[in-house]
Amino acid sequence: MTGTIDARLDELGITLPEPVAPVASYVPFVITGNLVFVSGQVPIENGKLPYIGKLGADISLEDGQAAARLCAINILTQVKEACGGDLDRVVRCVKLGGFVNSVPEFGDQPKVINGASDLIVEVLGDKGTHARAAVGAPALPFNVAVEVDAVFEIAL
């Protein structure tokens, strides 16, 4: 039987990909108590990194938002894995942390990370509202445009 969140993903035309394996010395998520801490997710799709470069130089605001949205899809994939495949166990998204590969003069990091925030709220509704940070970074792994990490509360 399809859960409520899976049905919402279907409604939105979103198919969660297979979880991406870590590329360094970390795990994709850690569960402690009723919290899931999701490691930073980059905008990877079908094994490719479609958003490479810096906001304010190589990447437009709209593409930065699309990159952040893709990060959020990858976050939901990891949360689903953490919940044993049942996204209906999500009680709420607690916090997102957004990192934007940007030139020093770029100041629209919050608008970029809205791509992730909006997707989480679109999928989870009120359970998706969250605290957030959106910061500029001089470089990110693989020169990706955006990286987003997250904390979720889940039902045990």
Percent helix, as a range, is: 25-40%
Shape: globular
Let me know the number of strands.
5
Structural class: alpha+beta
Most strands sheet: 5 strands, mixed
Classify the beta-strand content into a percent band: 25-35%
Any idea of the CATH class? Answer: Alpha Beta
Number of domains: 1
Q: How many angstroms does the end-to-end distance come to?
A: 20 Å
Radius of gyration: 15 Å
Strand order of the largest sheet: 1-2-5-3-4
- The CATH architecture assignment turns out to be 2-Layer Sandwich
Order of helices and strands: HEEHEHEE
The CATH topology is: 60s Ribosomal Protein L30, Chain: A
What is the mean predicted local confidence, pLDDT?
97
The low-confidence runs, each spanning 5 or more residues with pLDDT under 50, are none
How many helices? 3
The CATH homologous superfamily is termed: RutC-like
Structure commentary:
The protein is an alpha+beta fold. The protein has 3 helices and 5 strands, in the order αββαβαββ. Strands 1-2-5-3-4 form a 5-stranded mixed beta sheet. α2 packs across α3 (109-124). The chain is globular. The chain starts with a helix and ends with a strand.
For this entry, give a set of tags.
globular, 60s Ribosomal Protein L30, Chain: A, 156 residues
Short description:
The protein is of the alpha+beta class. The protein has three helices and five strands; from the N terminus they run H-E-E-H-E-H-E-E.
